[in-house]
């Protein structure tokens, strides 16, 4: 009985675990993770011979990236770039135009319940599938080319912008809405005079951010036939023209950088 | 009578929110945006065949009727690709995170060894990784190391580096520096300062970012197979090639359920950690 009290003062400090503070659970989770890792590793078959053969090609790609060839395929690259850039702008504008009414409809403090549910439904539908899958379906319906890409990006933009806009409207300062309403303003006037001034800076910021995302995505959806620089890139890689592919990648990175920095600059200026 | 306050609004200029110059500039800005959009629209649709576009409702009906009902029995062939997809996402996230952590420490302005040489290099790495979509990485890697899961894992890993490193270095830059000073005052070495003062502060952010990226990676790895990098996408491209739309619909259902579950898991974990 008395021996229990004779615990020496600890001379060493051990840091307590941050995650899974219960010892048994921690061990169970770590063992489970280890077993999963071993199983997952086994599902990967590595054909070392193929990898070895590919090293040569990989080196050619690195060379192509360091010494890009802009001129040989410049005509194709230019056409792809124009498609991508025009697609980006038009789809962002169309996405913003459609997502403003949907965003207002999906804000709980402005819309009646049936409208709210319908708009939330549209947002969920648009957000649950990613761009590539939408592009596959739209290319099948509208044929190859940038028009299908435009629709894909506009559709994806609607989910993104309306959701964030609706959240922003819901987070609006309620006292301003109440003040405008107290003057006898109609619903439209409330939206115009109390909500719109509060959310406008953020809406501009979100649109610019989406412009940035849409350009990145426009470089990808070309792989399934929706036009843009992605199609050009796919062709270049299929032809094993790694120097042209490197040039296209450098152009994509450069444009993404320019769009990202200018959009963050404008956002800071607006907000 | 003098001294009465004038309530006559017609005298003097009416109050305006903007000066004429400002409102003119704003109007000009919107006008330019409209012009640019119309111009882009024209340029984009130069080669559009409108007959195909007007035909779209019929095509949609046709595809819709072929998709429904989904080939429920096809699920038997989808379990293995689904397992592959989850593995691609998880292993890819692990690789990405393992590389992203040192890169983040090199890129954060308060932990980088040299702001002149190492930091720009780390930032360049982050930008390169971030601006190229994982599907494009997969396209390149399939050409280089051949089709299969490995290309998918590496593609996901390469794409994750930039995302994780960017969010993590922003978290490192926002830490409370007093704790670093306190630990340093005990005579701790550089590694010990990182271990005892910085890591505990960014650990919640780290887990949140990693799980968030894992969730995105599950989404992305479902379609990597379109370019041959393993997973559900391989079945998807096979079904698309044979125009087996009811199988395509089944794959969409599987993808949707997987994405919803992974999103739920990631939301729960982030809630628990942060």
TrEMBL record, chain A:
Keywords, A to Z, come to:
Cell membrane, Membrane, Transmembrane, Transmembrane helix, Transport
Among Pfam families, the record links this protein to: BPD_transp_1
Task: Assign the protein's first listed, main location to one coarse class.
Answer: membrane
Where, subcellularly, is it found? Answer: Cell membrane
The residues that cross the membrane are 24-44, 132-158, 245-266
**In this protein, which residues make up the domain named ABC transmembrane type-1?**
81-263
Q: How does it sit in the membrane?
A: Multi-pass membrane protein
Q: Which InterPro entries does this entry report, sorted A to Z?
A: MetI-like, MetI-like_sf, PhnE/PtxC
Keyword Transmembrane helix: yes or no?
yes
UniProt xrefs under NCBIfam families? PhnE
Which family does the similarity line name?
Belongs to the binding-protein-dependent transport system permease family.
Record protein name field: Phosphonate ABC transporter, permease protein PhnE
- Species for this entry: Marinobacter zhanjiangensis
From TrEMBL, chain B:
TM ranges are 24-44, 88-109, 223-242, 248-267
Q: Domain ABC transmembrane type-1: where?
A: 82-266
Where's it mainly located? Answer: membrane
Residue ranges that the Swiss-Prot or TrEMBL entry lists as coiled coil: none
Answer yes or no on keyword Membrane.
Answer: yes
Where would you find this protein in the cell? Cell membrane
Could you name the domain of life of the organism this protein comes from?
Bacteria
Q: How does it sit in the membrane?
A: Multi-pass membrane protein
Instruction: Print the keywords alphabetically.
Output: Cell membrane, Membrane, Transmembrane, Transmembrane helix, Transport
Protein family per UniProt: Belongs to the binding-protein-dependent transport system permease family.
Stored NCBIfam families: PhnE
Annotated protein name in UniProt: Phosphonate ABC transporter, permease protein PhnE
Which organism's genome codes for this protein?
Marinobacter zhanjiangensis
